[in-house]
Amino acid sequence: MQNHGIKKIVLAYSGGLDTSAIIPWLKENYGGCEVVACVVDIGQDREDLKGVEQKALRSGATECYVVDAREEFISDYVYPVLQTGALYEGSYLLGTSMARPLIAKALVDVANKVGADALCHGATGKGNDQVRFESTWAALAPHLKVVAPWREWNLRSREALLDYLKERDIPTTASLEKIYSRDENAWHISTEGGVLESPWNAPNKDCWVWTVDPQEAPDQAEQVTVTVKQGKVVAVNGEAMSPFKCLETLNAIGSKHGIGRIDIVENRLVGIKSRGCYETPGGTIIMAALRGVEQLVLDRDSFKWREQLGLEMSYVVYDGRWFAPLRKSLQASAESLAEEVNGEVVLQLYKGQVTAIQKKSPNSLYSEEFATFGEDEVYDHSHAGGFIRLFSLSSRIRALNELKK
Predict the structure, then answer these.
(1) pTM score, two decimals?
(2) Going from the N-terminus, what domains does the chain have, and what CATH number goes with each?
(3) Does residue 225 have a known ligand-binding role?
(4) End-to-end CA distance of the chain
(5) Taking every annotated instance into account, which residue ranges of this chain make up the domain Arginosuccinate synthase C-terminal (predicted)?
(6) What is the C-alpha R_g of the chain?
(7) Contact at 8 Å (CB) between 232 and 331?
């Protein structure tokens, strides 16, 4: 046992095997310090939250705080990112990435409340989450010390963790049979490990949790109407709801049609490639709805700028720089662009596919009079010749120079 000068630690607690072992390990290795568990509810499986306070106390925690952050997660973290259109490496909807800064911030709030002098997470030394937690803490609470057990202890396997708890007579529902590593919140569920560790292995049925196999989804397509205001979804099928409730409703609708499955190999921030299956049914529908309204409202250069914002934001969020000035700057620009992104979209859901089949906006720049292939009286075709001549002027001059040579 070492004396690190730490008297009270707030731990990001889930009730799973890792964090159950972390509580006694901290008390044994950090001078008998107090451990305060903090569970942040961001829409994970309700079963995981049942009895979580008692579980933490039985593992040796002095207190356990359960913070309901479901609405905050969707309204203050997910929706702002959606305004930018961020997709990490073209397909990942950043479910874990957006959640970590919120969890980290909640721990800082609890630490300030209980007078803690350190913060602790259960992220491994191989992953992105350690960076996300600690970057947030650096930005919000640089005076608090950080403890990362996976970078210190010698417990390297599931078997070792189970033995560690058994030796200390700490009950756990975990077993050796767990094959996959999963992360779940209201926005998505991710699955890694098991058969997925080889990219040559196709995912099996066990790799998917929320969504129906698209091949087994209903043979009848379903239509859903989404209302958008300033780049945010505010109603589903005409019923106004909070951001969390909108997502919850769309998750239920999308899951039964196999919407939102992706199987990707991504580049982690720490340099390792990892393979995972992600399910984001409601989020995939929302993204399609927002992009549908944007197509009507944003002019060409604005849309191009929004795409650039999304690309940059995807890296900023993935890398855990939520509380950095750059993220706030990107957000401000996206909010400005989203001011007129208002409208309604009808989306058709069918066997894993989402298609925006109807869209309208009071701010639409689409003009049927100008776009028609029929006869019109508003567009003079002869004007196009002068435009093309000016637009291609540099090419013309370059070619003439070549001819002179």
Answers:
(1) 0.93
(2) 8-167 (3.40.50.620), 185-298+340-360 (3.90.1260.10)
(3) no
(4) 83
(5) 180-397
(6) 25
(7) no
Task: Give the span between the Cα atoms of 73 and 24, in whole angstroms.
Answer: 30
Give 12-45 pLDDT, tens digit per residue. Answer: 999 988 999 999 999 999 988 999 999 999 999 8
* Structure token digits, residue 276: 């995972």
AA letter at 292: G
- DSSP letters, 238-296, are TEE--HHHHHHHHHHHHHTTTTTEEEEEEE-TTS-EEEEEEE-HHHHHHHHHHHHHHHH
Whether residue 232 contacts residue 277, with contact meaning beta carbons closer than 8 Å, is answered with no
pLDDT of residue 198: 97
Q: Reduced to 3 states, what is the DSSP secondary structure of residue 328?
A: helix
Six-digit token string for 160: 């070792």
**C-alpha to C-alpha distance for 230 and 239, rounded to whole angstroms:** 17
Is 26 known as a binding-site position? no
181 is catalytic: yes
Q: Of 100, 261, 291, 327, which is the active-site residue?
A: 100
* Degrees to nearest 5, angle at CA 126 with 124 and 129: 60
d(CA 210, CA 392): 52
